[in-house]
Design a protein that fits this description.
By secondary structure, the chain is of the alpha/beta class. It is built from eleven helices and eleven strands.
Length: about 260
């Protein structure tokens, strides 16, 4: 594929006519290596150029062999690969088949890096988790933010049933550029944190809780109805979405510094 900037420069210099430039851009956008066809998957290998981060693999529903094939191709086009929602059996297959892949058991995620993962952005993100049972979602958020280049401070098991534990860590939480709050049960932690800090909060309801938790709907509604301002809410158990959003906030804060 001809690089878009190169095409525009050739047009500017008079070395490429407009019609040919249009044809080349259309061709490259739909048929060039921007999309790799594996039959069962179309890999968007230029997503990082558009959005700042490569395509992320969602592991649920994919076979171990499909995950392996996707990993192999993505490693040819990027310096990092992240796969979420991967169970231990599939992870073992990929780790054995592809050099350099690491399985993060609590986060249920796989990562691969061409070079060691670096904290490339200033500042940090706080991932605040209500209870130990919520850790898989919290770790998915934390690992995602780290893959985006942000430093993450983990503040775990500080739910409202023992709120004094939260106050001990409040200075650290307030220093973050963005805060991810993960909670199940009734999801009250997001409102509490929202009333104590002046930073953007991404609330993550989890499916952890007894019957009336309704598999996460109860904390989802609590977070959506929070009276504390400055809270955004992602879907139930969506640690990836929260970590990505927080990573973008920290990245853009870092650019301004």
């Amino acid at each position: 594929m001809m690089d878009l900037e190169k095409i525009l420069k050739l047009v500017q210099a008079g070395d490429l006519d407009v019609e040919e430039a249009k044809r080349q851009i259309i061709k490259d956008g739909g048929e060039g290596p921007a999309n790799l066809d594996l039959g069962f998957a179309q890999l968007d290998v230029e997503r990082e150029k558009r959005t700042g981060f490569p395509e992320v693999i969602y592991g649920e529903g994919k076979t171990a062999e499909q995950l392996e094939a996707i990993f192999r191709r993505l490693t040819e086009h990027t310096d990092r690969v992240l796969a979420t929602r991967v169970d231990a059996a599939k992870a073992a297959h990929v780790v054995a088949a592809v050099d350099g892949v690491t399985y993060h058991e609590t986060a249920r995620s796989l990562t691969w890096f061409k070079r060691p993962m670096l904290k490339v952005h200033d500042g940090y993100i706080a991932v605040v988790c209500a209870g130990t049972s919520d850790l898989p979602v919290a770790e998915e958020a934390a690992l995602t933010a780290e893959c985006l280049g942000s430093h993450v401070e983990r503040v775990y098991d500080v739910g409202v049933a023992g709120i004094h534990r939260l106050f001990r860590r409040l200075e650290l939480i307030r220093g973050a550029n963005a805060i991810v709050v993960v909670a199940g049960m009734e999801g009250a932690l997001a409102s509490v944190v929202g009333g104590l800090v002046a930073k953007p909060i991404i609330a993550v309801p989890t499916s952890i809780g007894y019957g009336a938790n309704l598999a996460g709907i109860a904390p989802l509604l609590s977070m959506l109805n929070a009276c504390s301002p400055g809270i955004s809410v992602v879907n139930i158990d969506n640690g990836f979405g929260a970590g990505y959003y927080a990573g973008l906030i920290n990245k853009n804060m870092s650019k301004r510094a």
